[in-house]
Write a structure and sequence with these properties.
This protein is mostly helical. It is 62% helix and 0% strand. The chain has helices at residues 2-32, 36-40, 51-54, 59-81, 86-111. The longest helix is centred in the first third of the chain and has 31 residues, at 2-32.
């Protein structure tokens, strides 16, 4: 449950940054000829997740997560190595982002939204067992 929630938060953060900075990141690329502002928007925690953590997801969730992050990697690759002029970058980025938004909607429908509370997980280890004997009621003496 925690992995799903963190993936939902991470993907939501990426999409929010993209929506907020899409125009300015291409503008900075045009003016400064620096790709870093475009790539920084795509930063994600996903690079740190392990196969062990991903294996806690069911296959449908794994496929949805893979589709979203694979498309995000495609955006990163394009922005890192394109030789397109800024106007074309903006046009292609708009098209790719529509696909990414569709993939994000699917991801959220499968793993849940980032606002979900999730289930609290408590790890418990049995140290020893104690058997209780039922209490015997004391007989009351009437006087």
């Amino acid at each position: 449950m925690r992995v799903r929630h963190l993936l939902a938060i991470d993907s939501s953060n990426v999409m929010a940054r993209l929506a907020a900075r899409q125009d300015s990141m291409v503008g900075l690329f045009s003016r400064l000829r620096d790709r870093e502002p475009m790539l920084a928007v795509l930063d994600t925690w996903f690079d740190t997740i392990t196969f062990t953590e991903l294996s806690t997801l069911n296959p449908t969730e794994q496929k949805s997560v893979n589709r979203f992050y694979e498309l995000l990697a495609e955006v990163r690759w394009y922005l890192a190595y394109t030789e397109d002029m800024p106007g074309m970058v903006q046009t292609k980025l708009n098209a790719i982002l529509r696909r990414l938004e569709a993939s994000y909607r699917e991801l959220v429908s499968v793993i849940g939204p980032p606002e979900a509370d999730g289930a609290r997980i408590v790890e418990v280890k049995v140290v020893s067992k104690v058997t209780k004997h039922p209490r015997r009621a004391k007989a009351r003496v009437r006087r």
